[in-house]
Please model this.
Amino acid sequence: HKARRRLKAKHWSGRQWRFVVPDKHPAIPRPQRLTEGALSALERFSHIEAVSGIVLLLAAIVALVWANSPAAATYEHFWNTPITLGLGDYSVSRSLHFLVNDGLMTIFFLVVGAEIRQEIKDGALANLKLATLPLGAALGGVLMPALIYTLLNHGTAAASGWAVPTATDIAFAVGVLALLGKSIPSGVRILLLALAIIDDIVAILIIAIFFTASLDYMGLVIAAGGLALVLVFQRMGISKAAIYLLPGAIVWFGLLKTGVHPTLAGVILGLMTPVNSKPTRERPLETIERTFNELMDRFSQPAEGAQQVATPLKQLREAQREILPPVQRVQSALHPWVAFGVMPLFALANAGVSLDGFNLDDPLAHGVFMGVIFALVLGKPLGVMLASLALVKLNICKLPDGVTWTGVGLVGLLAGIGFTMSIFISSLAFSDPALLSAAKLSVLAASTLAAVIGLTWGKLKF
Model:
């Protein structure tokens, strides 16, 4: 209404037209209204935390059914399809499976890195007092599963999979928690998120330290050059995400050449994402107010061309972008793509385990299968509870407001949902197809079992 009062009705004045905001909006076509309503509903639906977990589970089920159907041969053939890129005489060819696991998953790790950076700035990891309980619980939830798995597989070739049951899938675990509704205290959700984030940090360190081949130091030089370019761009005040694709690609290639898993480039870049908006001569909201008033004044005057409003419109777009700090913009922009694109594709590419070649009579495969199940379903909640209990009883920290031991138990149970990260580590830990199949199948079974037990516990106790 304020804008309408400031604008003139459109009419011929001498030789020039004046712009108009009509008193009544024109009738919106029915197809447009239906489209807008559908898109709005889809957007609201996509922000429900449980939905991403359901989509991830459906993708895993599709992969499992596909890999055991009469068309099973097409599953392996499809994901091993070579993708070739060439420039002149130089070309590189990689499988579709590689592009998903080593390429697209970098985006997933970028979001994880940004979430960690945000939590360190003003979240559950902002200070030692806040971080002590989730840090101790997460470490307990990593050490106990690793210990149980190692005890069951000590001295065998299956022992290399000790890291498989140490990880927690954030999206799936939080999605299952969301299914329990508003009866769950907010402190329980925050504790689960903090624990899962620390769990991811530990998993990333495990990948970097234990699953890295011999280092090619030339790759380190290349990666360092990409990181230096990121810092230069940040100092220059460049905030457009597209500009950072080049240094990001350099870091990714450098880590690939080094022998470190290239997806760690996403974590590094996420941790480097600024938590504050770039310095400006005036606050973004002040810029928006000023440019809005300027646009209103210009639109109420005889127009001479679009160039009149180009500068204030550009300033308005830049100010709008800087309202949120980069670390939040990265999460907001990429989260839907990761939740409904990258992670389901990863599940589709990796959860297709053929049951034909799976044989529990094989001692090694049996050891992997039972080790992962016991470690995730039993070891995770046991480690989380024992570590939390020790920290509280020793007066090192206390339970957050609204969180009881029943809530800590629920967090421990849901932490047993390994899924994405556990399958990812499985592909690094095992080169033997039989052991890899056993590990993947056990991760799917254990994650499903942990989710069912967690839901049952939540329904009975809350």
